[in-house]
Amino acid sequence: ASFKRVTEQGNLVFLELEERSTAGGVTRAANSLSVYEMDADGKIRHIDVYLQLPVPAEALPPHYQGIRTAE
Questions:
Q1: Long-range contacts of 30-34 (CB under 8 A, 24+ apart)
Q2: Which of 3, 11, 39, 58 is the 20 to 30 Å CA partner of 68?
Q3: pTM of the entire predicted model
Q4: 10 Å Cβ neighbour count for 63?
Q5: What CA–CA distance (Å, rounded) separates 59 from 21?
């Protein structure tokens, strides 16, 4: 994973990473955002994780065919 940014706002901490995985000889990258909610003692109370990754071309609906997506 490549570290991008960490931000603290009130009782929330935001961690942004670029994560890479390899399966079947293909390496893919995904952007992730983890949101940590802290309690009054500074301990993690709740975690949300959001991923942004490319959709495989074969999974796109037919009406999207021919539309270029960001790399």
A1: 31/4, 32/1
A2: 3
A3: 0.72
A4: 7
A5: 19
